Amino acid sequence: MTISELRAEIAYHNLRYHQQDDPEISDAEYDELVRQLARLEAEHPELGTTESVGAPPSELFTPVVHLTPMMSLDNVTTFEELSAWGKRMERYIDSNVEYICELKMDGLAVSLLYEQGRLTRAATRGDGRVGEDITLNVHQIESAPQQLAGISPPVLEVRGEIFMPVSSFKALNEQQAQQGQRLFANPRNAAAGSLRQKDPAITAGRNLAFFAYQLAHLEGGPTFTHHGQTLDYLKSLGLPINSTTQIVDSLQKVHDFCQHWQVQRHDNDYEIDGVVVKVNDLAQRLELGSTSKAPRWAVAFKFPPEERNTLLKDIMVSIGRSGKATPFAVLEPVFVGGSTVRLATLHNQDQVALKDVRPGDTVIVRKAGDVIPEVVGPVLPKRPADLPAWKFPEQCPECGSHLSRTPGESDTYCSSAHCPKQLEQRIVYFASRGCMDIENLGERTVQLFMSLNLLKDLGDVYSLDYERIQQLEGFGETSVSNLKNGIEASKQRPLANLLCGLGIRHLGAAGSRVLAQAFGHLDRLLEASEDEIANTEGIGNVIARSVCEFFQQPDNRQLVDRLRLSGVNFQGPDRSELPQTLQGLSIVVTGSLQGFSRDGAEEAIKERGGKSPGSVSKKTNAVVLGEAPGAAKINKARELKIPVLNEAEFVHLLETGEILARDGESAVVR
After folding, report:
1. CATH superfamily, with its number, for domain 578-668
2. Which pTM was predicted?
3. Which CATH number applies to 63-302?
């Protein structure tokens, strides 16, 4: 692609992103185009450089000239590139540099103008010099104050980011789905579409938020020497400043900050795509100056992309342990979220129809952290002409039985109880870590044993022919012994694990624990009525009905008898034997403990009357620290001054309900 073609391509995508709020390519693909253009312009300086930022303002809004231009930032993605940026600064300043690190919000950059303390104008970035007047819409955003607090300066222009909280984004898409309307691709697009509305009432209903990050222009106010001081000043006027902002004294510490937030990027209720690094000293900023497009004193450290565009090659349907038929996308392999993605979930029949993705589409694929990859939606401008819509199959792809949909539900199920894929997935689930935790009995092994008729159902797990297995390729004496030991050990798992492993519809791990504790033995649960189960605290009518129906089926009764004969534990915990030392307490466990599995530690807490949530909050009474803990949980605990316990102190807490302080004294955790 030539320089002129690249410039035209980038200008087109700027228009789609900044003005139409409907990008065709991901941020990562756009950044790559910009990098290509920068390389070519560096090689051919006689052809000039590209100076435009963003896109021209839309004709839908009144144009606004910014008091100070809104420049873009150069990007880096590695520590080497960050160091190179630092080296370039040494050409201009030779004194020590202090940096200020700010999370790079994935929203919409705006400029707010306050005159005599009152918000008189709000504008989008536009092309950096001229933006769009969105004042009436910004008036609908609670966190963007209409009147500054304290002693207000005559004129103040502040830069910041308007974004949609993740919780609000999910609620909005749920509403869109209920109304049969197209889903928003991500919080950024949702925020942009909500803000750039002619009707402010629409903006008001979208729960947008605002963070200020830069003092752009000030008349009649105090003078400052450092950027950090300006943020403190903005905060004193009632403007919201992100609390994670940090000042550091080296590029290594900058990189450490970036690496920390790259790992913890989903800990907050807003999306970030990097860290903005700025020189803190304002005099040094003047020395450094700017290029035609970006300041030399700031750079954006971009995180690896979590969204990419790729080709949707096909849509297929998988059958789960309950017979649930789940559509999934077969993709042209694409590297996103730290790994290569070839398959992605499409959730259910309604989601496919709502997203209107079709084999042959270019689609947006998202993989956030450890979340299963999903197809967000199609890139409609790239859809081939006359591409037919995909239809959900009427027959099970595994056994050919009819696929039926329960009235009032979004899920579709295979109607055959003998579908081989269902049987396979039930066994895999039964053996999984959260259930019977049978080592060396993973999905591939189950598939092999089923193909050889060594396994037909759950009951066969405890009557395997080990002599025959040892004759199979890849199964030596040691591996067979390990498999046998793993199966034998599973017989002693808690009753809650067995209940969960049976795969009763609607009954998960939490409900299984409740039933195991309430009834104390599987036989008592077998004979319980639906009302007795439903009256158990924490168990509703839906779960109660499902449990009763499961145990009333003859095949399931026979399975229970076979498990009994195999010596599987049916005895549940007797809560009267365990002191309720943690009654009313909330204990968070993070990291690996030597004497407890993660599930075991949480179970020990709950058996003693406590709660074990997955996150730290003001309601948390203590945090138990193991090896390789979550940094965000530890930082939150320290911020809230919540006691942090080692494993020995955790054991003492379980026994007594007290924290053993580091000086050997005890203190009640209440």
Report:
1. BRCT domain (3.40.50.10190)
2. 0.58
3. 3.30.470.30
Q: Where are the domains of the chain?
A: 3-47, 63-302, 307-409, 420-490, 495-575, 578-668
Higher pLDDT among residues 180 and 44, named by residue: 180
C-alpha span between 236 and 234 (Å, rounded): 5
Superfamily of the domain at 3-47: Helix hairpin bin (1.10.287.610)
Do 3-47 and 63-302 fold alike per CATH? no
Q: How are strands ordered across the β-sheet holding 118-124?
A: 118-124, 108-115, 155-163, 209-219
- State the number of CA atoms in the 13 A half-sphere of 277 facing the CB: 31
Active site residues: 104
Reported as half-sphere exposure (CB side, CA atoms, 13 A), residue 122 has a value of 23
DSSP 385-421: TTPPPP---SB-TTT-PBEEE-TT-S-EEES-TT-HH
Residue 528: burial class (beta carbons within 10 Å; 0-12, 13-18, 19+): buried
E-strand ranges in 303-338 read 307-319, 324-336
CA-atom Rg of the chain in angstroms: 30
Q: Would you say 108 and 19 are in contact if contact means Cβ atoms under 8 Å apart? A: no
pLDDT digits (tens, 9 = 90+) for 38-78: 777 777 666 666 555 555 555 567 888 888 888 888 889 88
CA distance 181 to 175: 9
More confident residue, 263 or 561: 561
At 41, the amino acid letter reads E
User: For the domain 420-490, what is the CATH superfamily, name and number?
Assistant: 5' to 3' exonuclease, C-terminal subdomain (1.10.150.20)
